[in-house]
Write a structure and sequence with these properties.
- This protein is α/β, with parallel strands linked by helices and 264 residues long.
- The chain has two domains: 130 residues, Rossmann fold (3-Layer(aba) Sandwich), CATH 3.40.50; 110 residues, Four Helix Bundle (Hemerythrin (Met), subunit A), CATH 1.20.120.160.
- The protein is 57% helix and 8% strand.
Length: 264
């Protein structure tokens, strides 16, 4: 989606200062674990007032803002943050990047997020891939995190290996074979849809490949597919072709990694 022209300063994931504004203790813990898996850490505010107080004490590059909170909701909190920024004499580069966390994904709900001063949104329940893409759009330099990351998430692969049962075929090998067989036609479908400027077909094909990649722990490939989804949702495919090329290159790495997994 389109965001405002002010972005968080590009910094490595581990150094990005993030504030999570969320009233649910369970959602707090889930999101913190997701951030940790992506190489981030965050401070937590339980409501809008706590968020405003925290931002008076520390400079945050990114705020993950729950929209529905008792008392001062996320929309009002965002308005207060933007109003405070206007009153400050600091440079425009200090503008914090606010990402909405919302279960409401209708066009009018998204427009409300933007009109209240938010820069982006992630649908609830928050998915790891969607969160990673939103943080990348916020200006965090993802290359630092990707340099040391495995092509396949070892935690997801370890979970899949737990499906093994004695004297039965290996489900991991079966899942890998299915993915490697199914992915090339999906890439072809995406390429065809992009050439035809078919937003719906691009969205559907990219979503299918993203889900399959995420299920096998191919996080970067899934993230690139999510970027293609966002292109289609935004009604423009101007940057889709280079993203697709990146996805093809990543698939080559994923393919080699999965073949190794089958032998382990």
């Amino acid at each position: 989606m389109e965001t405002t022209d002010a972005k968080a300063e590009s910094v490595p994931p581990g150094k990005a200062r993030i504030l999570l504004v969320e009233d649910s203790p369970l959602n707090q813990q889930i999101t913190l674990k997701q951030l940790e898996a992506l190489g981030y850490s965050a401070d937590v505010a339980g409501n809008g007032l706590e968020a405003l107080e925290a931002m008076q004490k520390a400079p945050y590059q990114i705020v993950l803002m729950d929209c529905q909170m008792p008392g001062m909701d996320g929309y009002e909190t965002t308005w207060q943050i933007r109003n405070n920024e206007k009153q400050q004499t600091q440079s425009s580069g200090s503008r914090v990047h606010i990402i909405a966390l919302t279960a409401n994904t209708r066009p009018q709900d998204r427009e409300r997020c933007l009109s209240s001063g938010m820069d982006d949104y992630v649908s609830k329940p928050v998915q790891l891939v969607e969160l990673e893409v939103a943080l990348r759009r916020a200006g965090v330099d993802a290359s630092h995190a990707q340099a040391d990351d495995a092509v396949i998430d070892p935690f997801i692969m370890a979970g899949l290996r737990q499906l093994r049962k004695p004297n039965q075929s290996d489900p991991v090998s079966e899942l890998i074979d299915f993915f490697l067989r199914d992915a090339p036609p999906q890439f072809q479908a995406i390429e065809k849809a992009i050439l035809e400027r078919n937003m719906s077909a691009t969205l559907n094909a990219a979503s299918s490949l993203k889900g399959n990649a995420a299920n096998l722990g191919a996080k970067r490939l899934a993230g690139l597919c999510a970027e293609l989804e966002e292109q289609a949702r935004g009604g423009t495919l101007e940057d889709a072709a280079p993203i697709l090329e990146q996805a093809r290159d990543e698939f080559t790495r994923v393919q080699f990694a999965l073949e190794r997994e089958k032998k382990s």
